[in-house]
Amino acid sequence: MGSRFDVTVVAENEDQGNNFIDIAVNEISRIEKLISSWDPNSQTSEINRNAGIKPVVVDDELFQLISRCIKISKLTNGAFDISYASMDKVWFFDGSMTEMPSDEAIKNSVSKVGYQNIILDETKKSVFLKLEGMKIGFGAIGKGYAADKAKALLQAKGVTAGIVNASGDLNAWGTQPDGNDWMVAIVNPLNKNKVFSWMPVHNSAVVTSGNYEKYVKFNNVLYTHIIDPRTGYPATGILSATIFTKTAELADALATSIFVMGIDTGLDFVNQLNGVECIIVDANNKVITSNNITLKPNKD
Ligand code: ADP
Ligand code: MG
């Protein structure tokens, strides 16, 4: 998935541990083959190739994933949208941009984006992208989904404790061998060696979105690599968003959504959801938390 995965398991011995880790790696590769929009042989690529042409029958697993994505789009009012992949590239976050794209170019860039045009047929298990040139991509949810699936498979194999960490999108269960909770560090986005706080994770997921390395600045506004699929403008105001909830899939999608929504709407949104909490670091490096999180400052 173009990302590093770290798998931790508690096992009887090293051989058994390695064996479990292999199982997780195979599961992650299997999912990549299904959902990658880069791999021309994936079912996702087939859906994209047939945009505006015809529905494509897919595995139930992919069908269900897409249908959950659409539910998240509805929940977030379109802040999260897997058809973001239909966007024309008008923003570049590699330092190559010298001026802002025109309003018109930005508006046109999202003309094919819209989850309302992803048509699912529950009985046939088919997916149809209504507009020619439309595409879907799982960049904002795939790593979380893969982490959940690898965890579920390891649990089914009897692994009592572990962590699947997809480059900061993690799902943990059980405890460390000494009985202590797994702990996750909330780091300063501007200095990853500096820990703001440590949080215990009990059988749940923690996902951080924040690629502050990828941004562009115009008129003193920092535009980040996550783009609002409704307007074509990049998100501003947030350096990183961390979501705590049961599954890494939902956490992944919501972390991206919070970026798009911005601080006020994002916090309001999270505070209305049961079992979801967040920590946001704003553009001034200030830490803001949802209602049910109390941060203990790091003592290091
Ligand atoms: P990161 O780990 O890079 O911080 P995210 O989980 O926030 O990542 O996902 C960012 C990726 O998601 C982008 O590179 C792009 O592929 C995709 N994406 C960007 N904006 C959206 C959006 N509004 N809805 C769905 N996917 C998006
Ligand atoms: Mg995400």
Tell me the overall shape.
globular
If classified by CATH, what would the architecture of the largest domain be? Answer: Roll
String of helices and strands: EHHEHHEEHEEEEEEEEHHEE
Helix content: 25-40%
Between the first and last Cα atoms, what is the distance in angstroms?
34 Å
Biggest sheet, spatial arrangement of strands: 1-5-6-9-12-13-14
Report the CATH superfamily of the largest domain. ApbE-like domains
Bound molecules: adenosine-5'-diphosphate, magnesium ion
Average predicted local confidence, pLDDT: 93
What CATH calls the topology of the largest domain is T-fold
Number of strands: 14
Name the poorly predicted regions: none
- Domain module count: 3
**Number of helices in the DSSP assignment:** 7
Which structural category fits the helices and strands? alpha+beta
Radius of gyration: 20 Å
The share of residues in extended strands comes to 15-25%
What does this structure look like?
It is an enzyme of class 2 (transferase). It catalyses: L-threonyl-[protein] + FAD = FMN-L-threonyl-[protein] + AMP + H(+). Belongs to the ApbE family. InterPro entries: ApbE (IPR024932), ApbE-like_sf (IPR003374). This is FAD:protein FMN transferase. The chain has 300 residues and is an alpha+beta fold. It folds into three domains: 1-37 and 140-173, no CATH class; 43-129, ApbE-like superfamily (T-fold); 181-289, ApbE-like domains (T-fold, Roll), CATH 3.10.520. Helix content is 30%, strand content 25%. It contains seven helices and 14 strands. The protein has helices at 14-35, 43-49, 60-75, 103-109, 142-156, 248-261, 263-271; strands at 5-9, 56-57, 118-121, 126-129, 162-166, 169-173, 182-188, 191-201, 204-209, 215-218, 221-224, 238-245, 277-282, 287-289. It has a seven-stranded antiparallel beta sheet. The protein has a three-stranded antiparallel beta sheet with strand order 2-4-3, with helices on one face. Helix 1 packs across helix 5 and helix 6 runs antiparallel to helix 7 (263-271). The radius of gyration is 20 Å and the shape is globular. The structure holds adenosine-5'-diphosphate and magnesium ion (MG). Magnesium ion (MG) binds at residues 140, 209, 252-253, 255-256.
